[in-house]
Protein backbone atom coordinates (compact mmCIF):
# COMPACT_ATOMS: atom_id res chain seq x y z
CA UNK A 1 0.00 0.00 0.00
CA UNK A 2 1.22 3.46 -0.88
CA UNK A 3 2.06 5.83 1.97
CA UNK A 4 -0.16 8.91 2.38
CA UNK A 5 -0.11 11.96 4.63
CA UNK A 6 -2.65 10.08 6.78
CA UNK A 7 -0.02 7.32 7.26
CA UNK A 8 2.30 9.98 8.73
CA UNK A 9 -0.34 11.01 11.30
CA UNK A 10 -1.10 7.36 12.10
CA UNK A 11 2.61 6.57 12.62
CA UNK A 12 2.89 9.43 15.11
CA UNK A 13 -0.29 8.30 16.94
CA UNK A 14 1.11 4.75 17.19
CA UNK A 15 4.60 5.87 18.21
CA UNK A 16 6.15 4.28 15.09
CA UNK A 17 9.20 6.26 13.90
CA UNK A 18 8.93 7.73 10.41
CA UNK A 19 11.87 7.37 8.00
CA UNK A 20 12.67 9.65 5.09
CA UNK A 21 15.60 10.06 2.71
CA UNK A 22 16.23 12.32 -0.25
CA UNK A 23 16.36 11.12 -3.86
CA UNK A 24 16.89 13.21 -6.97
CA UNK A 25 16.77 10.57 -9.73
CA UNK A 26 14.87 7.43 -10.85
CA UNK A 27 17.53 4.83 -9.92
CA UNK A 28 18.09 6.17 -6.39
CA UNK A 29 14.33 6.59 -5.87
CA UNK A 30 13.82 2.88 -6.71
CA UNK A 31 16.55 1.78 -4.28
CA UNK A 32 15.30 4.01 -1.46
CA UNK A 33 11.65 3.05 -2.11
CA UNK A 34 12.37 -0.70 -2.24
CA UNK A 35 14.22 -0.46 1.09
CA UNK A 36 10.93 0.73 2.59
CA UNK A 37 11.20 4.37 3.69
CA UNK A 38 7.93 6.19 4.46
CA UNK A 39 8.83 9.31 2.51
CA UNK A 40 11.17 10.45 -0.25
CA UNK A 41 12.12 14.11 -0.38
CA UNK A 42 13.17 15.64 -3.68
CA UNK A 43 15.19 18.24 -1.80
CA UNK A 44 16.55 21.48 -3.20
CA UNK A 45 19.85 20.13 -1.78
CA UNK A 46 20.00 18.61 -5.29
CA UNK A 47 21.54 21.96 -6.27
CA UNK A 48 24.59 21.07 -4.18
CA UNK A 49 24.67 17.26 -4.56
CA UNK A 50 23.60 16.91 -8.22
CA UNK A 51 24.45 20.29 -9.75
CA UNK A 52 27.58 21.36 -7.83
CA UNK A 53 26.39 24.73 -6.49
CA UNK A 54 27.71 25.77 -3.07
CA UNK A 55 24.22 26.54 -1.72
CA UNK A 56 20.59 25.74 -2.58
CA UNK A 57 19.84 29.32 -3.70
CA UNK A 58 20.41 28.90 -7.50
CA UNK A 59 17.91 26.00 -7.78
CA UNK A 60 14.95 26.79 -10.05
CA UNK A 61 11.40 25.47 -10.45
CA UNK A 62 12.52 23.85 -13.73
CA UNK A 63 15.31 21.98 -11.87
CA UNK A 64 12.84 20.80 -9.22
CA UNK A 65 10.23 19.62 -11.74
CA UNK A 66 12.84 17.77 -13.85
CA UNK A 67 14.16 15.81 -10.83
CA UNK A 68 10.72 15.30 -9.25
CA UNK A 69 9.42 13.66 -12.45
CA UNK A 70 12.32 11.18 -12.38
CA UNK A 71 11.76 10.36 -8.69
CA UNK A 72 8.00 9.87 -8.96
CA UNK A 73 8.57 7.36 -11.79
CA UNK A 74 10.74 5.30 -9.39
CA UNK A 75 8.76 5.55 -6.14
CA UNK A 76 5.97 2.96 -5.85
CA UNK A 77 5.34 3.04 -2.10
CA UNK A 78 6.85 6.08 -0.39
CA UNK A 79 5.19 9.51 -0.15
CA UNK A 80 7.05 11.85 -2.51
CA UNK A 81 7.53 15.38 -1.17
CA UNK A 82 9.16 18.06 -3.35
CA UNK A 83 10.90 21.23 -2.09
CA UNK A 84 9.71 24.62 -3.29
CA UNK A 85 13.01 26.31 -4.25
CA UNK A 86 14.26 29.75 -3.18
CA UNK A 87 12.00 32.57 -4.52
CA UNK A 88 9.22 30.19 -5.63
CA UNK A 89 7.00 31.07 -2.63
CA UNK A 90 8.50 34.14 -0.88
CA UNK A 91 7.25 36.86 -3.25
CA UNK A 92 3.50 36.28 -3.04
CA UNK A 93 0.85 33.80 -1.96
CA UNK A 94 -0.35 33.59 -5.58
CA UNK A 95 3.11 32.53 -6.80
CA UNK A 96 3.41 30.08 -3.90
CA UNK A 97 0.16 28.30 -4.80
CA UNK A 98 0.96 28.27 -8.53
CA UNK A 99 4.46 26.84 -7.98
CA UNK A 100 3.23 24.26 -5.46
CA UNK A 101 0.67 23.25 -8.09
CA UNK A 102 3.42 22.74 -10.70
CA UNK A 103 5.34 20.35 -8.43
CA UNK A 104 2.15 18.27 -8.09
CA UNK A 105 0.79 18.56 -11.63
CA UNK A 106 4.03 18.50 -13.66
CA UNK A 107 6.36 16.77 -11.15
CA UNK A 108 3.92 14.16 -9.89
CA UNK A 109 4.74 14.84 -6.21
CA UNK A 110 2.13 14.16 -3.52
CA UNK A 111 3.14 17.03 -1.22
CA UNK A 112 5.42 20.08 -1.14
CA UNK A 113 7.82 21.46 1.47
CA UNK A 114 8.78 25.07 2.11
CA UNK A 115 11.12 26.76 4.59
CA UNK A 116 9.91 29.14 7.31
CA UNK A 117 7.01 29.47 9.74
CA UNK A 118 5.46 32.73 10.94
CA UNK A 119 6.68 34.60 7.84
CA UNK A 120 4.94 32.19 5.42
CA UNK A 121 1.86 31.12 7.37
CA UNK A 122 -0.38 32.70 4.72
CA UNK A 123 1.39 30.83 1.88
CA UNK A 124 1.12 27.49 3.72
CA UNK A 125 -2.59 28.02 4.45
CA UNK A 126 -3.31 28.97 0.82
CA UNK A 127 -1.46 25.92 -0.59
CA UNK A 128 -3.35 23.67 1.85
CA UNK A 129 -6.63 25.33 0.74
CA UNK A 130 -5.73 24.30 -2.82
CA UNK A 131 -5.73 20.66 -1.55
CA UNK A 132 -1.94 20.33 -1.68
CA UNK A 133 -0.42 18.81 1.50
CA UNK A 134 2.40 20.94 2.93
CA UNK A 135 5.41 19.92 5.01
CA UNK A 136 7.00 22.76 6.99
CA UNK A 137 10.76 23.18 7.57
CA UNK A 138 12.21 25.29 10.41
CA UNK A 139 15.44 25.81 12.36
CA UNK A 140 18.53 25.71 10.13
CA UNK A 141 16.67 26.54 6.91
CA UNK A 142 19.37 26.43 4.18
CA UNK A 143 17.67 29.03 1.92
CA UNK A 144 18.44 31.55 4.73
CA UNK A 145 22.20 30.85 4.57
CA UNK A 146 23.01 34.50 3.87
CA UNK A 147 20.75 35.79 6.65
CA UNK A 148 22.28 33.25 9.09
CA UNK A 149 25.88 33.92 7.98
CA UNK A 150 26.44 30.23 7.18
CA UNK A 151 24.90 26.82 7.86
CA UNK A 152 24.67 27.48 11.63
CA UNK A 153 22.68 25.65 14.30
CA UNK A 154 19.60 27.75 15.22
CA UNK A 155 17.60 28.26 18.42
CA UNK A 156 20.41 28.21 20.97
CA UNK A 157 19.35 31.33 22.94
CA UNK A 158 15.95 31.95 24.57
CA UNK A 159 14.99 34.51 21.90
CA UNK A 160 16.11 32.28 19.03
CA UNK A 161 14.42 29.21 20.53
CA UNK A 162 11.18 31.20 20.97
CA UNK A 163 11.27 32.12 17.27
CA UNK A 164 11.63 28.46 16.25
CA UNK A 165 8.80 27.40 18.62
CA UNK A 166 6.58 30.20 17.23
CA UNK A 167 7.40 28.98 13.69
CA UNK A 168 6.36 25.43 14.64
CA UNK A 169 3.03 26.66 16.03
CA UNK A 170 2.39 28.79 12.91
CA UNK A 171 3.02 25.79 10.62
CA UNK A 172 0.60 23.62 12.60
CA UNK A 173 -2.00 26.42 12.62
CA UNK A 174 -1.68 26.86 8.85
CA UNK A 175 -2.61 23.21 8.31
CA UNK A 176 0.70 21.52 7.42
CA UNK A 177 0.70 17.70 7.80
CA UNK A 178 4.28 17.48 9.17
CA UNK A 179 7.35 19.62 9.81
CA UNK A 180 11.10 19.16 9.38
CA UNK A 181 13.18 20.35 12.35
CA UNK A 182 16.72 20.95 11.10
CA UNK A 183 19.87 21.89 13.02
CA UNK A 184 18.47 22.78 16.45
CA UNK A 185 19.38 21.64 19.99
CA UNK A 186 17.75 18.36 21.02
CA UNK A 187 16.08 20.03 24.05
CA UNK A 188 14.31 22.55 21.80
CA UNK A 189 13.26 19.80 19.35
CA UNK A 190 11.76 17.90 22.28
CA UNK A 191 9.81 20.96 23.40
CA UNK A 192 8.45 21.45 19.85
CA UNK A 193 7.55 17.75 19.44
CA UNK A 194 5.60 17.93 22.74
CA UNK A 195 3.87 21.20 21.83
CA UNK A 196 2.54 20.52 18.33
CA UNK A 197 0.37 17.58 17.26
CA UNK A 198 1.67 17.07 13.69
CA UNK A 199 4.62 14.69 13.08
CA UNK A 200 8.11 16.20 13.43
CA UNK A 201 10.88 14.90 11.15
CA UNK A 202 14.38 15.65 12.44
CA UNK A 203 17.75 16.25 10.79
CA UNK A 204 20.31 17.35 13.34
CA UNK A 205 17.57 17.63 15.99
CA UNK A 206 18.30 14.55 18.11
CA UNK A 207 16.26 11.38 18.75
CA UNK A 208 13.19 13.21 20.11
CA UNK A 209 11.37 13.79 16.83
CA UNK A 210 8.70 11.49 15.32
CA UNK A 211 10.97 10.63 12.40
CA UNK A 212 14.33 11.25 10.76
CA UNK A 213 15.55 12.43 7.37
CA UNK A 214 19.03 12.57 5.81
CA UNK A 215 20.42 13.32 2.38
CA UNK A 216 20.97 9.84 0.87
CA UNK A 217 24.36 10.75 -0.64
CA UNK A 218 25.58 11.89 2.80
CA UNK A 219 24.68 8.64 4.62
CA UNK A 220 25.98 6.56 1.67
CA UNK A 221 29.34 8.37 1.63
CA UNK A 222 28.98 9.75 -1.91
CA UNK A 223 29.16 13.50 -1.22
CA UNK A 224 32.25 14.68 0.65
CA UNK A 225 31.89 18.45 0.49
CA UNK A 226 29.81 18.81 3.66
CA UNK A 227 30.29 16.89 6.88
CA UNK A 228 27.65 18.10 9.33
CA UNK A 229 27.90 16.42 12.74
CA UNK A 230 24.39 14.99 12.30
CA UNK A 231 25.33 12.70 9.37
CA UNK A 232 26.01 9.02 10.16
CA UNK A 233 27.86 7.25 7.35
CA UNK A 234 26.28 3.85 6.62
CA UNK A 235 28.45 3.04 3.58
CA UNK A 236 31.41 4.35 1.59
CA UNK A 237 29.87 4.16 -1.86
CA UNK A 238 31.99 7.03 -3.19
CA UNK A 239 35.17 5.08 -2.39
CA UNK A 240 33.68 1.93 -3.96
CA UNK A 241 32.88 3.85 -7.14
CA UNK A 242 36.41 5.25 -7.40
CA UNK A 243 37.91 1.76 -6.82
CA UNK A 244 35.65 0.16 -9.44
CA UNK A 245 36.49 2.84 -12.02
CA UNK A 246 40.23 2.53 -11.33
CA UNK A 247 39.96 -1.25 -11.93
CA UNK A 248 38.13 -0.60 -15.24
CA UNK A 249 40.85 1.82 -16.39
CA UNK A 250 43.59 -0.68 -15.48
CA UNK A 251 41.77 -3.55 -17.27
CA UNK A 252 41.27 -1.57 -20.50
CA UNK A 253 44.87 -0.40 -20.47
CA UNK A 254 46.20 -3.95 -19.84
CA UNK A 255 43.93 -5.53 -22.50
CA UNK A 256 42.07 -7.61 -19.89
CA UNK A 257 38.76 -5.86 -20.73
CA UNK A 258 36.91 -6.67 -22.85
CA UNK A 259 37.30 -10.47 -23.03
CA UNK A 260 35.99 -11.53 -26.46
CA UNK A 261 34.41 -14.79 -25.19
CA UNK A 262 32.68 -13.27 -22.19
CA UNK A 263 31.90 -9.78 -23.40
CA UNK A 264 32.01 -9.84 -27.24
CA UNK A 265 29.79 -11.03 -30.14
CA UNK A 266 30.64 -13.36 -33.06
CA UNK A 267 29.34 -13.90 -36.60
CA UNK A 268 29.60 -16.78 -39.06
CA UNK A 269 33.11 -16.37 -40.54
CA UNK A 270 31.91 -17.15 -44.09
CA UNK A 271 29.77 -14.01 -44.03
CA UNK A 272 32.98 -11.96 -43.89
CA UNK A 273 34.30 -13.49 -47.15
CA UNK A 274 31.82 -11.56 -49.27
CA UNK A 275 33.00 -8.20 -48.00
CA UNK A 276 35.03 -6.01 -50.38
N1 LIG B 1 24.51 17.06 1.00
C1 LIG B 1 23.77 17.89 1.74
N2 LIG B 1 23.39 17.50 2.98
C2 LIG B 1 22.64 18.34 3.76
O1 LIG B 1 22.30 17.93 4.89
C3 LIG B 1 22.28 19.60 3.24
C4 LIG B 1 22.71 19.95 1.93
N3 LIG B 1 23.46 19.08 1.21
N4 LIG B 1 22.38 21.13 1.37
C5 LIG B 1 21.46 22.00 2.04
C6 LIG B 1 21.62 21.92 3.50
C7 LIG B 1 22.91 22.44 4.06
N5 LIG B 1 23.01 21.71 5.30
C8 LIG B 1 24.03 21.84 6.24
C9 LIG B 1 25.31 22.17 5.84
C10 LIG B 1 26.34 22.28 6.77
C11 LIG B 1 26.08 22.08 8.12
C12 LIG B 1 27.20 22.21 9.09
O2 LIG B 1 28.35 22.17 8.75
N6 LIG B 1 26.86 22.37 10.37
C13 LIG B 1 27.83 22.49 11.44
C14 LIG B 1 27.16 23.23 12.59
C15 LIG B 1 27.84 24.51 12.94
C16 LIG B 1 27.25 25.11 14.20
O3 LIG B 1 27.54 24.54 15.29
O4 LIG B 1 26.49 26.07 14.10
C17 LIG B 1 28.27 21.12 11.97
O5 LIG B 1 29.40 21.04 12.44
O6 LIG B 1 27.45 20.18 11.97
C18 LIG B 1 24.79 21.76 8.52
C19 LIG B 1 23.78 21.63 7.56
C20 LIG B 1 21.96 20.72 5.39
N7 LIG B 1 21.56 20.54 4.00
C1 LIG C 1 17.80 18.21 4.19
C2 LIG C 1 16.38 18.24 3.75
C3 LIG C 1 15.43 18.42 4.90
C4 LIG C 1 16.14 19.24 2.64
O1 LIG C 1 15.40 20.19 2.75
C5 LIG C 1 16.84 19.01 1.37
O2 LIG C 1 17.45 17.93 1.17
O3 LIG C 1 16.78 19.91 0.51
MG1 LIG D 1 15.63 21.60 1.14
TrEMBL record:
Keywords: Cytoplasm, Magnesium, Metal-binding, Pantothenate biosynthesis, Transferase
Residues noted as binding Mg(2+) in the record, renumbered to the chain: 44, 83, 115
A biological-process GO annotation: pantothenate biosynthetic process
Cross-referenced Pfam families: Pantoate_transf (PF02548)
Binding of 3-methyl-2-oxobutanoate, residues: 44-45, 83, 113
EC numbers: 2.1.2.11
UniProt-annotated catalytic positions: 182 (proton acceptor)
Cofactor note: Binds 1 Mg(2+) ion per subunit.
Locations listed in the record: Cytoplasm
Main localisation: cytoplasm
UniProt xrefs under Gene3D superfamilies: Phosphoenolpyruvate-binding domains (3.20.20.60)
Leader sequence segment: none
Pathway: Cofactor biosynthesis; (R)-pantothenate biosynthesis; (R)-pantoate from 3-methyl-2-oxobutanoate: step 1/2
Free-text function comment from the UniProt entry: Catalyzes the reversible reaction in which hydroxymethyl group from 5,10-methylenetetrahydrofolate is transferred onto alpha-ketoisovalerate to form ketopantoate.
Protein name: 3-methyl-2-oxobutanoate hydroxymethyltransferase
Species of provenance: Galliscardovia ingluviei
Amino acid sequence: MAITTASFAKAKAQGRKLTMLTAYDYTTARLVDEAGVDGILVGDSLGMVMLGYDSTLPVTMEDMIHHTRAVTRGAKHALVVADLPFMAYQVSTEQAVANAGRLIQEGGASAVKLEGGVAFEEQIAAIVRASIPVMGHIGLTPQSVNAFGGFKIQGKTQEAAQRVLDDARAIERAGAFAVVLEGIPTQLAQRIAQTISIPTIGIGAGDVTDGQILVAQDMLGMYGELSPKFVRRYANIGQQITQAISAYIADVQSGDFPNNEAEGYTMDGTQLEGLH
